[in-house]
Amino acid sequence: MSSTEPRRTALDALHRSLGATMTDFAGWDMPLRYGSERDEHNAVRTRAGLFDLSHMGEITVTGPQAAELLNFALVGNIATIGTGRARYTMICQADGGILDDLIVYRLAGTEAGSPTYMVVANASNAQVVLDALVDRAAGFDAEVRDDRDAYALLAVQGPESPGILKSLTDADLDGLKYYAGLPGEVAGVPALIARTGYTGEDGFELFVKPEHAVELWQALTEAGAGAGLVPCGLSCRDTLRLEAGMPLYGHELTTSLTPFDAGLGRVVKFEKEGDFVGREALTEAAAKAEQNPPRVLVGLIAEGRRVPRAGYQVVADGRVVGEITSGAPSPTLGRPIAMAYVDAAHAAPGTAGVGVDIRGSHEPYEVVALPFYKRKK
Fold this sequence. Notes:
Layout: E1 7-8, H1 12-17, E2 21-25, E3 28-33, H2 37-46, E4 48-52, E5 57-62, H3 66-73, E6 86-92, E7 98-106, E8 116-121, H4 126-136, E9 143-146, E10 152-157, H5 161-166, E11 181-186, E12 189-194, E13 203-208, H6 213-224, E14 229-231, H7 234-243, H8 279-291, E15 296-302, E16 313-316, E17 319-330, E18 335-342, E19 354-358, E20 361-368
Parallel strand pairs: 1-3, 4-14
Antiparallel strand pairs: 2-3, 4-10, 5-8, 5-9, 6-7, 7-8, 10-13, 11-12, 12-13, 15-18, 15-20, 16-17, 16-19, 17-18, 19-20
Helix pairs in contact: 2-7
């Protein structure tokens, strides 16, 4: 296979047999949609959807100083993650720019008495994150292992997902909190069952060996048939996360933004022991953000039907006050929505006179607080 050809997940032939529209995403051939993206989106909001997320990048960090390495390499306090729990965090450059946002799991069980962590990176940044962790591991008694080929990742998301999964596992799902993971068998397949997701709904992500992916997909499909589970592609994953106000790397998060610029300064833990990459720059960024608030990430809801796209300018009083980072029609709200960084003076929900420049025409938009959608618990 030439290096220019996209990589294929273990479920590739199955996606094609289901008639999926495939697309190149971060060097992977991935299902964009199987039928109607609106139907797939609504299934996740009201019933359940099944996703192949095997393009995500899994990196294992283990060894006596695994926690110390991750505390140095990442902005969060990884040492305080309990066994079986997960944490959202970021890896930054020395200048504070965001390299990627990550989920770090502290796995149950240890390798030779050492703590073991799984770092899950975005597909587009997996190599960058791996290289950074290997580089930052110098001097630590810890091993960084590229485990991208060791896992397939399936996600079941939506209000019916706990019931569907319960029918296939003896694992204690009721005791599994949000942002936690436990080892168990699902339909006879050994898995790490994580209560995480990127849709704004309750749901689970299942890390399994690639050779078990097809068998597990089919078991989940059969178990979910009566509950209205449908296969879902990346297109509806994007509208789901947008409604839930969740950032996407390359859109809301980039190397030109610090976590404080992105309104996610809470993930930076200055109180942890020792130095970490970016500490000095981020200390300055935090102080600057307090004195002179940067642009704020807000939600925008269209009054008309025209869809804003990333890069479009947000305007008010005849001048540019911000920029769209993500935009799409919202199946749940029935109107186009967007996330945008706007000047603090125009960031308050209900701010009047804000528009988006769509090909020279200033379309009126309402400024709202994020997220656009919050599930009822």
